[in-house]
Write a structure and sequence with these properties.
1276 residues, alpha+beta, 7-stranded antiparallel β-sheet, 7-stranded mixed β-sheet, 19 helices, 75 strands, 16% helix, signal, WSC domain-containing protein, Ig_E-set, Gal_Oxidase_central_sf, GO-like_E_set
Length: 1276
């Protein structure tokens, strides 16, 4: 157990200090201990933020070191990009977004992470998972962010250096973890550190962590058309989100800047504010204090990094705000009383003076205490400025001191008005405005008001002036583009420079006409911009980096933004700076708008059209002589000489792949989603890409959303989630990879259905059934049917939950009605926990077991020769002596296979429980010489996700190995790689899903039929994407040319699946879970349904849905074919709360035994067969004749962790004369490696009881091995 108190001076634990309040200013909620690595903070009034970039880096390293401790413990394969928060910036800067997301996803779904946390800090799992979730989930929001090229070199170290620093930090930290008792970091200003708003379920506020991870940027100039579009595209989610933002600010004491950021967050991120399922495990209320603290910390980091970051353009919406149960008190000090609730405009304040501002300690009483007599005081709501507030009015609790008034009610504050005049300028009223401006010349006016705007227009020689959006000023000679008068009430935004008068509204202008006669001449260039006071501006025609050159002036925002990417506004923008910034990100088009806005792209979108060059009349913020666009006008430059403008996108309804059909715009049931599988096709999403991916993984319903998101699911999901179709106009975002077609909108999907059957899952009337078989003594980990027709079980020895366990037992199937007689106690000498086993081809059909849990056990080689008969106990026991016989490498989780030459192949594993990898293979009996193990680099690279690799002999004599999500063919002569096969498909949204332990699926060889000319096929079903179980099977014929994997979807997700070969050539799929990975306590949601896979049917029509059990079969469960054709179902050792150590043993009665038919009988006299030989059997059929009879040979297997080692099914050639039938044995060891088989005959669908036969003898002379005193040799 690590020492929780061990510390490194460079990485002090994050220890809390008492709350400390600073009167009248902001509060440093986060306190760090003194030391060499202590980050310095600056109190900015409303938040403590890191003082410098070095302080920010220190914080990230401190948290990253803590995270690296747990990552290092499991040695998860996580890309360097996600090892530390410091590396996130580096990898994003280098465009390695997929690497960051891959590592993030791996750890997020790593159920072993939970186990590590429990081991390190018992009782503190929920808090620790929450802390690290904050760090990890922030990655999800930062993936689309591009870091500034000029700043990031100071932060971004080389990948090698950063990874090394992370590992050193973890080592130096001594794996110290903060005890949960020290995690309750308090918030200042409130003794309980939980305001009323935070006392709700923590899930209510979980989305803030997603939001806090994203940057905030200056509000950009928008027209009302685009504003309304933004509102419309996210109307469903934001109605809830906007209210929670307010409660989050007050409950979590977020500074105004952080709240402004939340309002400007893109809809896809804002969904987190209403998504109560964002965390995989919701935290209880008592854990909220820790998370609130981390939220403030994240907010401070966010505010520090804001100036460093470029981001994609985000829409800025405006919202109404509701109170969350606030009550205006009546018991007030002195003679103060409430006048009620009044509106407060966003452009300026109804009450002109803010005497006391506090976002963390505001109360009615504190506001009154600092307010002058007879002055109304606004309370309860901090000011959040926004231009887009046409329909938003704030509500103020207004209070007065009635003792200062006598005889009459006090007068209310003066409301703003439309100023009738300003000097010789007369008001013409309120007029409409649009993307095509009513007044064509924009002015940059600081502190906009009627007076300052009219003065600017007078100076430039224009007789008409108009104010819009509170802080925008426009001039012109005449009203153009169909401007008409609108109701005065539409102009309802107060001037940014004078709160007593209105300055237009969204798409509305307060227009004034100059009535004097002394206007100066109109300034050259049609009026200035960018602070050039009307001086002429010109496009840059020379001096740009080669090959950049000016293209034209383009109209923006008629249908939406015509550039896909916007960089942050910069008051010092020039044409040169914008070209350099976009060129650094490999864009070929640049657009500059409204003096200070820089856009990048490769094509123009949203129906862009050219405008006259004179429309781009605003000077650049950093060079007033350069033209930098105008209001809704872009000065466009190109590096290719070509500019492609795409039309307004529409939903793609023709040219769709396969049988897909467009169904309409589907509204997400926020906060839930319609379809369960989400894919991010960043920069390359399209209907074709999304639909092809969904169809390839068997999903008949699909949709695209937010431009670059793809969702897959079933048509039934729509009804199950209550989703409804919305107006087509709600889907209004172009596909990131196809700008002429739509890919949804804000919480809206362009939905498509497959017109046909993708998955023909059968639901037969006869589905078989589960039956209780017998009560067990232990939880078996390894199950093997012996040639004595008894079942050998091995379980943990020394680490068993039962002190008196001997580690080995044998079940007599004929005595299950008497538990006292059915079980025979056997013995092992070392711990077989997670070892491997096969049945040998020697005369006694001995079971060999190799490897184990730790120390000497990992080197163990154990042998047992089954003896006795049904109803008669045997006397043999397991034999083992590590001093006489052991493996060359200790192995935990190894696989074993009898090769075509009769020797035994042992592959992979680890050197002990969660110990280093053993990426080697070795042969038993051990060849002469020294170390004869063979290093396998591919196992070394994919550890620890390759344990219990799948091994099969191929008809070429080569060996197939499947590990993690890869596969190869090996030459057994020298173990060179003959062929690297394509990677196995994973889940629809992740190619990282794996198939071997701990991402455990199950594998079999499909049956081989005489004359054995068809290529052999490997089938693998189930697996996990690091916590999300896989719902498909994949199959491949590895030795055909250009071999590829074929995927078939299963009806449900399944990890820790088991497959049992049946005598009729079908396979039962059962056991496992729908969530998690293999291991103790790492999976839940058991899959109780059994499936039948029939390879004789067409692809996608092979699966039948059978019956359900009531017994959860999770980790350490097995399925084994019995001699009578039933399937033995045993085990489950999950150590998961709510699921017991399962000792009940069941059998499944397959459909072929569930029809009341009599099983045929078979008599075999010769049981030792040579390759190609012919052997006679006698049969007795009850329902058909030999013309419809089949013969099958099912190889003896040993099953553990869903890996049926040695499995193979063969249908040999035979002929019959009456009841005597002659079978031709397989021709060679490549078709059928030497070993024991159960021979079945089938009368129609009904199998007989089996007879044991051996094919191919014992070519490796295993019957004479090992020649040591403690081992009994059966001979060959």
């Amino acid at each position: 157990m690590p020492n929780f108190k061990a510390q490194d001076a460079r990485f002090p634990a994050l220890r809390p200090q008492p709350c400390k309040q600073k009167a009248g200013s902001g509060i440093c909620a986060l306190r760090w201990p003194p030391g060499p690595a202590e980050p310095r903070f600056v109190d900015h009034g409303l938040a403590c933020i890191p003082k410098t970039l070095d302080d920010t880096r220190t914080i990230l390293e401190l948290l990253g070191a803590q995270l690296s401790v747990l990552v290092a413990r499991r040695r998860r394969v996580i890309h360097a990009c996600s090892r530390t928060p410091a590396m996130i910036a580096c990898c994003l800067r280098k465009g390695r977004v997929s690497s960051v997301h891959r590592g993030y996803a791996a750890l997020r779904h790593d159920q072993a992470f939970s186990q590590d946390v429990r081991e390190l800090d018992p009782g503190g799992e929920s808090q620790w998972k929450g802390v690290f979730s904050v760090i990890l989930h922030s990655l999800e929001i930062t993936l689309p962010i591009h870091l500034h090229a000029k700043i990031m070199p100071s932060i971004c170290r080389s990948e090698t250096e950063s990874l090394a620093a992370s590992e050193r930090a973890a080592a130096d930290l001594g794996r110290s973890i903060i005890p949960s008792s020290e995690m309750n970091w308090p918030l200042a200003g409130d003794p309980t550190c939980l305001r009323a708003g935070a006392r709700a379920s923590f899930t209510e506020f979980s989305g803030v962590f997603r939001a806090i991870g994203a940057p905030s940027f200056p509000v950009r100039k928008r027209t009302a058309a685009s504003t309304r579009k933004s509102i419309r595209q996210d109307s469903t989610g934001n109605k809830v989100a906007k209210d929670r933002v307010w409660s989050l600010q007050h409950a979590f004491k977020l500074p105004d800047a952080a709240v402004n950021f939340l309002y400007s967050t893109p809809p896809r991120f804002k969904r987190g504010l209403v998504d109560s399922t964002f965390f995989s495990t919701p935290l209880p209320v008592h854990g909220a204090r820790t998370m609130v603290h981390l939220t403030l910390f994240q907010a401070s980091l966010c505010l520090t990094v804001i100036p460093l970051i470029h981001a994609i353009h985000v829409p800025h919406n405006h919202y109404h705000h509701k109170r969350q149960g606030d009550v205006i008190p009546t018991d007030l000090p002195g003679n103060w009383s409430s006048l009620g609730c009044y509106t407060d405009n966003p452009g300026a304040r109804t009450l002109s003076s803010a005497s006391f501002v506090s976002t963390d300690n505001m109360t009615v009483e504190s506001c009154i205490a600092v307010t002058y007599l007879r002055t109304a005081a606004r309370t309860l709501r901090p000011r959040i400025a926004t231009r887009h507030a046409r329909a938003m009015r704030r509500k103020l609790a207004v209070l007065v001191d009635v003792s200062a008034y006598t005889g009459a009610e006090p007068s209310l504050p003066r409301l703003p008005i439309i100023a009738p005049s300003s000097g010789l300028w007369q008001s013409l009223g309120c007029f409409n405005d649009s993307a095509d401006r009513a007044l064509s010349v924009g002015m940059n006016v600081a502190n906009n008001s009627v007076q300052t705007c009219t003065a600017a227009c007078f100076t430039s020689g224009y007789p008409l002036a108009g104010m819009e959006f509170a802080d925008e000023c426009y001039c012109g000679l005449t009203m153009v583009n169909g401007a008409i008068s609108e109701p005065d009430g539409d102009c309802d935004m107060t001037c940014s420079g004078n709160s007593s008068e209105f300055c237009g509204g969204p798409n509305r202008l307060n227009v004034y006409n100059y009535t004097g006669t002394d206007l100066p001449p109109v300034s050259g260039g049609g009026g200035g911009g960018g602070g050039n006071n009307g001086a002429p501006v010109f496009p840059v025609l020379s001096g740009l980096p080669i090959p950049w050159k000016y293209n034209a002036c383009w109209v923006d925002n008629v249908n939406g933004r015509i550039f896909p990417t916007q960089l942050p506004d910069n008051a010092n923008t020039t044409v040169e700076s914008c070209v350099n910034d976009c060129s650094a990100q490999n864009f070929t088009l640049v657009g500059i708008e409204f003096s200070t806005q820089c856009f990048c792209g490769d094509n123009l979108i949203e129906g862009a059209v050219e405008a006259p060059d004179s429309d781009c009349s605003m000077g650049c913020g950093g060079n007033a002589t350069e033209a930098c666009g105008g209001p809704n006008r872009l000065s466009v430059y190109t590096s290719t000489g070509n500019v492609t403008a795409f039309p307004v996108p529409t939903a793609q309804k023709t040219g769709l792949p396969g049988k897909w059909e467009y169904k309409g715009c589907l509204a997400e049931p926020v906060p839930n989603r319609v379809f369960p599988w989400q894919l991010f096709n960043t920069n390359n999403n399209s209907a074709e890409a999304c639909l092809n991916q969904c169809a390839a993984f068997g999903y008949p319903a699909a949709g695209m959303e937010f431009g670059d998101e793809c969702y897959c699911g079933d048509v039934e999901d729509i009804q199950a989630t209550g989703a409804q179709f919305a107006p087509e106009t709600d889907c209004n975002i172009a596909c990131s990879g196809d700008p002429i077609h739509l890919c949804g909108g804000g919480s809206r999907l362009n939905a498509y259905f497959w017109n046909g059957t993708l998955n023909d899952w059968h639901t037969p009337d006869n589905i078989g059934r589960y039956e209780y078989f017998i009560g067990g003594l232990v939880v078996p980990l390894i199950a093997t049917v012996g040639i004595n027709n008894k079942v050998s079980f091995l379980e943990k020895f020394g680490t068993s939950e039962f002190d008196n366990s001997t580690g080995a037992y044998e079940l007599d199937l004929s005595l299950v009605n008497d538990t006292s007689l059915a079980w025979r106690e056997m013995h092992v000498k070392s711990d077989v926990f997670c070892s491997g086993a096969v049945v040998l081809p020697d005369k006694a059909a001995r079971l060999i077991n190799v490897g184990g849990w730790s120390l000497d056990s990992t080197f163990g080689v154990r042998l047992y020769a089954p003896d006795g008969s049904p109803g008669v106990n045997g006397t043999n026991d397991w034999e083992e002596n590590k001093d006489e016989l052991k493996l060359q490498n200790g192995r935990w989780y190894p696989s074993a296979l009898v090769l075509t030459n009769g020797s035994i192949l042992i592959v992979g594993g680890e050197s002990g429980s969660n110990a280093p990898a053993v990426p080697t293979l070795e042969i038993l009996p051990r060849p002469p010489g020294g170390d004869t193990t063979v290093f396998l680099d591919f196992l070394n690279r994919t550890d620890p996700n390759n344990l219990y690799p799948f091994l099969f002999n191929l008809p070429s004599g080569n060996v197939f190995i499947g590990y993690y999500n890869e596969a190869r063919i090996l030459n057994p002569e020298n173990w060179d790689v003959v062929k690297v096969l394509p990677n196995m498909p994973g889940s629809v949204n992740s190619f990282l899903s794996g198939r071997t332990y701990p991402l455990e699926g199950s594998a079999v060889l499909l049956p081989q039929f005489a004359p054995y000319t068809d290529p052999v096929t490997v089938l693998i079903c189930g697996g996990s994407n690091f916590g999300v179980a896989v719902d498909n099977c994949v199959l491949i014929s590895p030795e055909v040319d250009n071999a590829t994997w074929t995927l078939e979807r299963m009806p449900s997700k399944r990890v820790m699946s088991c497959m049992a070969a049946l005598p009729d050539g079908t396979f039962m799929i059962l056991n496992g879970a729908q969530q998690g990975v293999a291991g103790f306590g790492l999976a839940s949601d058991p899959n109780l349904n059994a499936l039948l896979y029939d390879p004789s049917q067409p692809i996608n029509s092979r699966i039948s849905i059978l019956n359900n059990t009531i017994v959860a079969r999770l980790y350490h469960s097995e399925a084994t074919l019995l001699p009578d054709g039933r399937v033995l179902v045993s085990g489950s050792d999950p150590q998961t709360p709510g699921f017991p150590e399962e000792m009940r043993v069941e059998v499944y009665i397959p459909p072929y035994l569930n029809e009341g038919r009599t099983q045929p009988t078979v008599n075999v006299t010769e049981t030792d067969w040579n390759y190609g030989g012919t052997y006679t059997i006698n049969v007795h059929l009850f329902h058909g004749d030999t013309s419809t009879m089949k013969v099958s040979l099912v190889a003896a297997t040993s099953s553990t962790h869903g890996n049926t080692m040695g499995g193979r099914t063969i249908f040999p050639a035979f002929s019959c004369n009456g009841n005597a039938c002659t079978i031709t044995a397989p021709p060679n060891a490549k078709i059928s490696p030497p070993g024991w088989h159960q021979l079945f005959i089938l009368d129609g669908p009904t199998p007989s009881h089996s007879a044991w036969i051996r094919i191919g003898g014992d070519p490796a002379q295993l019957g004479n091995w090992p020649d040591f005193p403690d081992f009994t040799l059966p001979g060959v």
